[in-house]
Specification:
By secondary structure, this protein is of the alpha+beta class. Helices cover about 45% and strands about 10% of the residues. The protein has 2 domains: about 110 residues, no CATH class; about 170 residues. It starts with about 25 loop residues before the first helix and ends in a 12-residue tail after the last helix.
Length: about 375
């Protein structure tokens, strides 16, 4: 049924005021909500970043803790470690890796590139320092860093790299430099150029009887590897020999190490009483007096021996710093004999970068 409308009756209409704007209070509320959402998003992103870092075993995770940096790398703090990294980073582009690509491409050298590694370069060197510091097995390291075991084997790459880079730094000091930094306690032995001592690391016993006889140390009653280490009077490491078999004598290691060629008559060396080397060096030897066939020492000899012993102990303190690395307190497996010389030498040379002066009072001398 159709309904007719009277033409005089207006059609119903809805009124709209298009000039009416939103209330200011509503706009402020909307802006506040957006700002809160942005802050919440920023906070959640930061949490995700922190969780990601904490879930990874990397240098950044421990950068805020000096105790952790010291424990894992033997560097005093993160800033100290990064200062060292800045010195060697420019040379990292020349790193040569030996990988499975060597077999495929039939080449001995595989250039370093980001595509061949899972870890960043800074984390690879962190892995290298972590390895001797804690003395862990490579399989353990692979689990901790969440990488393949073949990646862990790049420890040898960094051992060789640091051995080359740090070995290229001429650590031997001239006479004038040694005297400039001479601590006051050495004034009675002001001609001392270097304090020498040998150190040994126990190694796994070889199956070969011939090899056993060469590496067996009667002093340690065990098969060992042996090095000669020298420091300047103010504590800097200035000489590290190559690795020798444990059966070698202190006198013979001094002859073969090459240090004799660095000495001249104006210098003096300070050694333990076991180093009977006066006849094979061109300089004076400060050595504690021993009894030989006499019944007792004179008072002056006792005082001299005691004073030398008090000064010579500093080289033992440096060796102790090196041996803070747990890998050196265990029996070295024969499987890493190809790299142990590089690892130990690097650990000795890093002492010059990782630590402060041996004695706080020497801080102005170093």
């Amino acid at each position: 049924m159709q309904i007719d409308h009277d033409d005089d009756d207006p059609l119903p209409c809805h009124e709209h005021d298009y000039c009416v704007s939103n209330e200011p209070a509503a706009l402020d509320l909307s802006l506040n909500e957006n700002e809160e959402l942005r802050e919440e998003i920023s906070r959640l992103r930061k949490q995700i970043e922190d969780l990601t870092v904490r879930s990874k075993f990397c240098l950044e995770r421990f950068s805020a803790s000096d105790d952790d940096i010291r424990f894992f790398t033997r560097f005093a703090n993160h800033a100290h470690l990064m200062g060292f990294w800045k010195q060697i980073e420019p040379a990292t582009h020349i790193i040569i890796r030996v990988t499975s690509a060597r077999t495929v491409e039939k080449t001995d050298q595989v250039p370093h590139s980001a595509s061949t590694t899972v870890l960043q370069a800074i984390d690879e060197i962190f892995l290298f320092m972590y390895y001797p510091s804690l003395g862990l097995m490579q399989k353990d390291l692979a689990h901790r860093f969440r990488i393949h075991r073949s990646t862990v084997s790049r420890i040898n790459t960094w051992a060789n790299f640091l051995y080359t880079v740090l070995g290229a730094v001429y650590v031997w000091l001239d006479v004038d430099t040694v005297k400039t930094h001479l601590p006051d306690v050495f004034q009675d032995y002001a001609d001392t150029q270097i304090i020498l001592d040998s150190t040994e690391l126990r190694c796994q016993t070889p199956n070969s009887l011939l090899l056993q006889s060469e590496v067996f140390s009667t002093y340690k009653s065990h098969c060992t590897f042996k090095w000669l280490l020298g420091i300047a009077p103010h504590g800097a490491v200035t000489f590290v020999s190559s690795l020798y078999q444990g059966a070698i004598s202190d006198k013979e290691i001094l002859k073969q190490s090459g240090i004799v060629a660095l000495l001249d008559p104006s210098m003096a060396i300070m050694v333990d009483k076991g180093f009977l080397v006066e006849d094979c060096v061109p300089c004076k030897v400060h050595i504690p007096t021993f009894l030989s066939k006499r019944a007792q020492l004179s008072r002056s000899e006792i005082r001299t021996s005691q004073s030398i012993a008090r000064l010579r102990v500093h080289v033992e303190r440096v060796i102790r710093r090196v041996k803070e690395h747990k890998i050196f307190s265990t029996v070295i497996p024969l499987s890493i004999t190809g790299s142990i010389n590089q690892i130990f030498t690097v650990a000795c040379l890093l002492v010059n970068y990782q630590n402060g002066p041996l004695v706080k009072a020497w801080a102005n001398n170093g």
